[in-house]
Amino acid sequence: MSFDFNTLTSKQKKVYSAIEAFIKTKGIPPSVREIGEMVGEKTPGAVQGILNRLEQKGAIKREVGMARSIQLVSNESQYLKPLYIPELKKVNSRTAGNLFSIYNIAKYHPVSPDMVLSSDECFIITCSDESLYNSGIKLGNSLIMKKTSDLVDGDIVLIIYENQSLLRYYSPGEQQNTVYLKADDNALRKEQFSKDEVIVIGKLIGKFSKHP
Q1: Residue closest to 104 by CA, chosen among 123, 82, 118
Q2: CA 148/CA 166 separation, integer angstroms
Q3: pTM of the model
Q4: Could you report the per-residue pLDDT of 163-175, keeping only the tens digit for each?
């Protein structure tokens, strides 16, 4: 049995895609609460309503009274295949040399290829400060970073300074061995750094918010 993906509403497509990505990542169907977290629906009743309509359209099957019983009717992906990006536990001077150690990976997140062209050298961190709050980067945001030395003026970079991981706007310094690293605040009371003082881990290429 199959269904026409194009008959789904945008919200139904979003839920269907979230279910498919979850199954591919975890190997089990998501719960109603987990679906709500993925798509930003805070009310379980709203999620149930969408699932009911997906079932009516033949997109999914469920067993009555059984938890995690959602099955996708079509085995063929109806949307762009997600890329799986590791979320890192820590970024500091100890982990900088081996960021992608299995001991430093909390989990993998499915990310749309519209956000990330390639998963190579990309990773996710949780924003732990508000130094770029005025720029729309807030505490708790999930930030998609890419390890690269190819930086241009205005890139937002993740650096390590005195064993702290910090987000800063990057500008090349006037001298070859210096860089400017600016924040919305100036808590460090310093913007020009010697390249020997900091480790540039990578640059920001995307972000998303986690819903409670």
Answers
A1: 123
A2: 16
A3: 0.62
A4: 889 999 999 988 8
